[in-house]
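Render this sequence as a predicted structure.
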Amino acid sequence: MTAGSNIIIKDSSDTILYTFGAGFSIGGYDFGKRTKTSLRAYQNGGIITADKKLNPRLLVISGILYETEAGVPITNSADFEAEWDELTEQVNKETLHICGYKIDRYMIAECLERSTHKWVAMNHSGNISLSFRCEIPFWWSSSQTQSSQNVTASGQTKNWTNNGKEPTYPVVRFTAGGDLTSVKLKNQSDGNKEIVYVGAMANTDYIDVNMSDGTCKLNGTDDIADFSGAWWKLVNGVNTIEATLVGVVGTSSIRLTYRERYL
């Protein structure tokens, strides 16, 4: 898939845990369709089918370890084992972000136990291989995209463009510009799927709908009871969102936050 000095392992907070040298490459199996699928439950009871019915992806980082992460040459097996211990300690901490395809993209992964290492005395270096499982088999953009647009009348449509190559599930924040009794947000570009909120909203109240986790919160507090509809995604390209509002619209707003995804 790629080779060079750009293979970096980070934690979920984007802190660098380990940087591989130029002797390493990253590869693995392409993703494939699941032959059987099952429904996935959301945190608050909603249901969604498996994400595009794709299998998890296996990534393998392999190469020749001839110097430490700090650039100090490794000349004996003891130094090699010490560096291996440091590496395995880092990659087994938690869910990881692997940057390797492009430095501004990462894949969410967990390290598997099938990793191997071997010291080659005649070469004063060691061969290592680390295997990772990626439950979501896509590359994610390392930066979030966030964009807001105002709605001043019921029935208005607004466009958002997802520049990624794959659909992605946003967090949608709707902020009321007046007293509202119903909010319906339809993505005409995703099969006209729509979400509906029927709780009372006053001016500046907001709801956050997480399309990936399946949650709906009013002013930061769970309110899935007043929510219904179908969780929609942003398809790649232009997405047309229609807002149907009951009550005083004023200057309401829709904000979408998401990460682009790539094959």
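Summary. The CA atoms of residues 62 and 129 lie 4 Å apart. The helical segments are 77-91.
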